[in-house]
Fold this sequence. Notes:
This protein has 387 residues and is an alpha/beta fold. The chain contains 14 helices and twelve strands. The strands form three sheets. The chain has a seven-stranded mixed beta sheet with strand order 2-8-7-6-5-3-4, sandwiched between helices. Strand 3 (138-142), helix 7 and strand 4 form a beta-alpha-beta unit.
Amino acid sequence: MTYERPNITRLTPYTPGEQPAGTPTDRSQPPIIKLNTNENPYPPAQPVLDAIRNVSPDALRRYPPPTASAFRQAAADAHNLTPDHIIATNGGDELLRLAITVYCEPRGTYNNTDSPPVGWDKRSASHQSQSPTPGAGIGITDPTYSLYEVLAAIHNTPITRMPLNDDFSIPDDYPDRLNAANARLALIVNPHAPSGRLQPINQLADFAQRFNGILLIDEAYTDFAESNALELLDPARNLTNVLLLRTLSKGYSLAGLRFGYGLAHPTIITTLNKAKDSYNTDALAQAAAVAALQSRDHAAKTWQAVTAERTRLTDRLTDLGHRVHPSQSNFLLTTPTTNAKTLYQNLKAANILVRYFDHPRLTDKLRITVGTPDENNQLLNALEKLQ
Ligand SMILES: *Cc1c(COP(=O)(O)O)cnc(C)c1O
């Protein structure tokens, strides 16, 4: 006998990219070239490390500021908004989970059973009959960041999938399809993962106008792109249903810190705040996150280095016969000339980790994180030999 909900029994959990044991300085292991989880290949800024070291014993003894007020001010300054447009979260992933739990209805699990559960009474029965609107779930594109589906399955909310066009652009009737399905939350990752494609801002604005729900634009990779969707929050546009996700994991080299944030109209932020954990980001992370945004110039140098290498790697892979999807991100989706899964395995045997997705539209492709010039050269050399 187990006690979890049936949707959890059925759940296929998220598969994270491999994180090899041992540190890069561990001489007993051969060095691993890690190009599989879209981490920034350069270290975070020195002021970030100093901020962590300088956290006082008192700041650890006490609970942290519940809404990360200093961080929200720093983010407001960085984005030319006010702090009431910002929510700090424990990684961008927490914002995704929060948005799903706040906006989407779980399917009633005992509507179909003959015997109501203990504690079932008329009051909850009538509440039950009014409350869950059938289908008030999430809308996602296919393919997309695979965590979205997992979070929706945990919440047991319906999922509406919109197949992307062959070039990974979004069909124009996406909002109509979602409205017809009564979806409450549409998730668009932009630049798109795993292709790296940047969707045009006019299309996103149009979707926000037409969609009867919250449009969450996941900008995890925005620091490597030539534009972002911040202008959708301009009060002149009057879009009160747009929520932008940002993270320090990629652009600021802080995936280990677990810090992300949302940007939206204050009505959305107030609603999300009602449902978040009281102390969802810790004192060390808050101190580091403030320093990170204040050292944006350091981070921006890493973005330049990565985007320059992205161009070079695209060219060199193309020379090797790959079809490389144009990317505005810190990774490339590429179709090699030989079997992608075998190539992934052979690269792994050569201590080079890239990502292979066992997903219908991606089985002939690899997703490769852009590394340092040296890492990219080692990848290119290995590919020359292997394929
Ligand atoms: C990395 C990533 C996130 C957020 O990651 P965190 O490390 O939790 O901040 C969100 N969406 C996509 C598509 C990502 O790749």
